[in-house]
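Researcher: Checking consistency across runs. Here is Quercetin 2,3-dioxygenase again:
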Amino acid sequence: MRIKPVLSLVFGLPTQDGNRVPLTRLVPGQGQRGDVAFRAMDPFLLMDHFGPMTLPPGTDAGFPPHPHRGFQTLTYLIQGAFKHRDSTGGSGLLRPGGAQLMNAGLGIVHEEMPVPEHLETGGAIEGVQLWINLPKADKGSAPGYTDLQPESMPWKAVPGGRIRVLAGTWAGVTGPARTPAKIAYAHLELVAGTRFEQAVPPGWTAVVVPLHGSVLIEGTEVAADTVALLGDGDGVAFECLSPASLMLLSGEPLGEPIAHYGPFVMNTREEIEQTLLDYQQGRLGHLA
C-alpha cells in the first residue's frame, strides 16, 4: 500500500453561523476561497465543526429557517440534541451519535434548533456538518430528509479505539448513509500512540480532520481543527500523538463545473440566478 502524504494543510476559520452558534469552518478554511476548496476537496463542499459549547438556559442558539439547492447535507451530532423541520414536511430529533442526511436537490428550506430541554436548562452541543455535492444529473432531484439514528451506526472497536461509520466503508465497517456521490465518512477516536491504516480507491480525494488532539501523517503533524488534504497513493495512515477524535473523509471526485452562491451550489451562473429567483418567489418551499 502506497501511503498518501499530506498535500496541503488548511487551518479552520473560527466564526459564527445561524443564531450565534460558534463554529470552526474547516472547508473552506483560512485563506482558502470557496472555488479553490471545491476543486481540491471534490466532492465535498463545506465542513463545519460547531461547538463544543455549552448553551446557557434560555438560549435559542441554532440554525433558523434557511434554503439550500444542489447538494446534500450530512449533519452528525457528537453531543447535545437538535430538532429538524423542513419544507417537505420532514422532521426529526438529532441525538448524540446520530445524524441527518438531507437532500436539498431541487430546493428545500429547513431549520435545526435546540430541543425544549436545552431552551429551559441549557446543555452541551458539538457536531459536524458536511456538504456533499450532487452530480449534475441529481441536482434536480426531489428534496428529502433521512434520520440516521445512533443505533444504525454504532461504535465498533478498532485497535486502540473505536470507529463510527456514517457512509461508505472504513475499517471493514459500512455506514447507513446513501449518497449519489461515492463517499466514505467516519468518526474515529483513538488513544495516544495508536497507528491507523486504511486502503482507499486510487484517485479518490482523501482528507483527515482532527477535531481534538493531533496526529502524524508521513512526518507532518496535523493539529485539531486542521484539514489535512492528502496527495497521491492508495492508502491513508497516521499515528496519534495524543488522544484524538477525528473525521475521516474520502470520495470520488465528480469533476463537474461548480457555480455557488451562499447556500446554493449549481453548475452554471445562470442556474444560480434562476435559483435566486425561485427562492424569492417561494418555489423552494416554506416551513409551516
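Researcher: Does this match what you'd expect to see?
Model: One thing to look at in this run: Residues 3 and 279 are 45 Å apart (CA to CA).
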